[in-house]
Every structure is written in structure tokens, then in C-alpha cells.
């Protein structure tokens, strides 16, 4: 307790600097992870999932706009690790900073809940936070590269699509997972530990087999994803989707399994379609189940309160009712 009081007693500028550095480090680490799984499609380097966008949107939703400097610094560090500081780098940093900010502002404006306890919240995160807001980062980034002659005109739409989908998938898959981790408490509830362990074992064994199988059986991942989402909602669905997406990306980079004998364009399109359907299924199904559970609990609570109210009214007995009637007459 004394340590917490001591931290809160720090001068506000020092607290803001520490928060900025922490957000920047998290953004940079997520960027390096994303770059480690990059693909080459028709000569252009793309990332099927760009985790920093998910990290940025989650930080803004949880801690507010004071995270903006940290996001900008983290984006600058990621770009600086790839190329020398130039005008194109400044444009990419600007786009990667503005897109999460716009996502946060739009989600707040429509009443988004970080608990993702409603289907509406999942839909808003997908259509506003991911698909709409990430048009900014992809548009500004690709536009800057085109204006500075860093991009071949024939590759414009291919690179733009890959950039946009990668950023959007970062929001769809990474942001919900971070929001769940922020709400998690230790120790976790002890119920259904056996089922959770069994699910984790099956996922860790079956998903690599499916992604590396010479027969195209990627669809076998979806029953596992549905199981995880039905039983554990976001806490089960999103880690399962992320693991399957990472394994599929690794298989695509190695041109193994279902991604063997495909062209670069076919590999990118198949992988991004798989990742997109995984993320959407996990997020929306988990939101639906959470909403149904919350509705049932609300109904049960209302019924319990009604029963208690009736018991309280009947506690007076017939004599109390008769006395009250005599007073009225």
C-alpha cells in the first residue's frame, strides 16, 4: 500500500514520461513481433497481422488520449528500425498514430464498452475501430510512399490492401485479447479448470497438424474456435484465434501445408481471408454469448428481487391487511 501511495505521489510530468515510455516499448515490441512474420507478395513486403495497431487501440480505450505520445514514439522506433528517417517515414508514423486515435474517438462516441459484453460492441470494434479507422493508416502510409517514389505504381492497390487488412486484423484479434487481460484477476476462478486444460491441449496439438497438413483442412480449426468461444467467451476465443493465426502465418512463410504450391498473391489472399474469418468468428461469437449470459443473469436477478418483494409484502399477514382496510373505512 505504501508503494502505491508513493507512486501516486510522483510529480505528474514524471508519471507521464514513464507512461509514454511504457506505451512506446509495448508498441515497438509488438511491431518487431509483427515484422518477424512478414511475407513477400509480388515483391512487396506485407504483414498479415500488424499487432501494434491492436496495442495502440487497447491503450487508448483503457487509459485515454494521454497514450498518444507513446504511440507516436513507438511507431517512430519501428519505422527507424527499418529505414533511415525520411519524409516517407514521417508520413507512416503520422498515419499509424492518427488511425488508433480516430478509432478510439469513434468508439467512444457510439458508447463502446471495453468489456465487449454486447454484440453491438463487437460489431463497433470491427466496423469502426478496424475497417474504418485503419483506412487512415493504410491510406496515409501508401500515399506517402507513392508521393516519395518509394512504391511501384503497379503494386499500389496490392500493398494498400495488404496494409489495410493487416492493420485491421491487429485491432480485431489483439485489441480484444488485451482488453480481456486487463480485466483478468489473479487467481482466476477455479471452475472448469479441467475443460480449459483439455481445450488448450487439443488446440496446441490439432492446430499445428491442421496448418501443416498437405490436405487443405484449415476448416477444422473452426470447431475448436467455436468450442472456446461458447465455453469461455473472449478469454477462450481470442487466444485460440491468435494461436491459429500465428501457426497459419508460419506455415505460409515456409510454404508448407495448405499454402504449398501457391503463388505469393494466392498465399497472401488465402492467409488474410483465413485470419479475418478467424478473428471475426471469435470476436462476434464471444460477444453474442457474453450478451446472452448477461441477459440471463439480469433476468434471474430481477426474478429474485421480485420474489423477495413478494415475501416482504406477505410477511405482514392477513391481520396487517385487515387493520389497514379498517383505517381506510
UniProtKB/TrEMBL annotation:
This protein's UniProt keywords: Cell membrane, Membrane, Transmembrane, Transmembrane helix
Principal location: membrane
Protein's cellular compartments: Cell membrane
Entry's transmembrane regions: 14-35, 55-82, 88-110, 122-145, 157-181, 193-226, 232-252, 273-290
Membrane topology annotation: Multi-pass membrane protein
Domain MASE1: 21-292
Pfam families: MASE1 (PF05231)
The organism's place on the tree of life at top rank: Bacteria
Name assigned to this protein: MASE1 domain-containing protein
Source organism of the structure: Streptomyces thinghirensis
Amino acid at each position: 500500500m505504501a508503494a502505491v501511495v508513493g507512486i501516486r505521489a510522483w510529480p505528474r510530468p514524471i508519471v507521464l514520461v514513464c507512461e509514454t515510455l511504457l506505451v512506446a516499448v509495448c508498441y515497438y515490441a509488438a511491431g518487431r513481433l509483427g515484422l518477424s512474420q512478414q511475407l513477400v507478395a509480388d515483391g512487396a513486403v506485407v504483414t498479415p497481422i500488424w499487432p501494434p495497431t491492436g496495442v495502440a487501440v487497447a491503450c487508448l480505450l483503457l487509459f485515454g488520449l494521454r497514450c498518444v505520445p507513446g504511440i507516436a514514439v513507438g511507431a517512430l522506433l519501428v519505422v527507424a528500425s527499418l529505414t533511415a528517417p525520411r519524409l516517407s517515414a514521417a508520413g507512416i508514423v503520422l498515419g499509424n498514430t492518427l488511425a488508433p486515435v480516430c478509432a478510439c474517438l469513434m468508439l467512444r462516441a457510439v458508447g463502446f464498452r471495453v468489456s465487449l459484453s454486447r454484440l453491438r460492441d463487437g460489431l463497433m470494434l470491427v466496423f469502426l475501430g478496424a475497417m474504418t479507422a485503419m483506412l487512415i493508416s493504410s491510406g496515409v502510409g501508401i500515399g506517402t510512399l507513392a508521393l516519395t517514389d518509394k512504391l511501384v505504381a503497379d503494386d499500389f492497390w496490392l500493398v494498400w490492401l495488404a496494409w489495410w487488412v493487416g492493420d485491421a486484423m491487429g485491432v480485431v484479434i489483439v485489441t480484444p485479447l488485451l482488453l480481456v487481460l486487463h480485466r483478468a484477476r489473479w487467481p482466476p476462478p477455479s471452475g472448469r479448470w479441467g475443460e480449459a486444460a483439455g481445450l488448450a491441449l487439443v488446440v496446441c496439438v490439432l492446430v499445428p497438424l491442421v496448418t501443416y497438413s498437405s490436405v487443405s483442412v484449415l476448416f477444422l480449426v473452426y470447431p475448436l474456435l467455436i468450442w472456446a468461444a461458447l465455453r469461455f467467451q473472449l478469454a477462450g476465443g481470442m487466444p485460440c484465434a491468435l494461436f491459429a493465426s500465428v501457426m497459419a502465418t508460419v506455415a505460409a512463410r515456409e510454404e508448407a501445408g495448405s499454402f504449398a504450391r501457391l503463388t505469393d498473391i494466392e498465399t497472401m489472399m488465402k492467409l488474410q481471408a483465413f485470419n479475418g474469418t478467424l478473428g471475426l468468428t471469435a470476436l462476434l461469437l464471444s460477444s453474442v454469448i457474453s450478451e446472452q449470459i448477461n441477459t440471463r443473469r439480469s433476468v434471474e436477478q430481477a426474478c429474485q428481487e421480485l420474489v423477495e418483494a413478494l415475501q416482504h409484502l406477505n410477511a405482514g399477514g392477513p391481520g396487517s391487511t385487515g387493520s389497514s382496510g379498517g383505517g381506510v373505512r
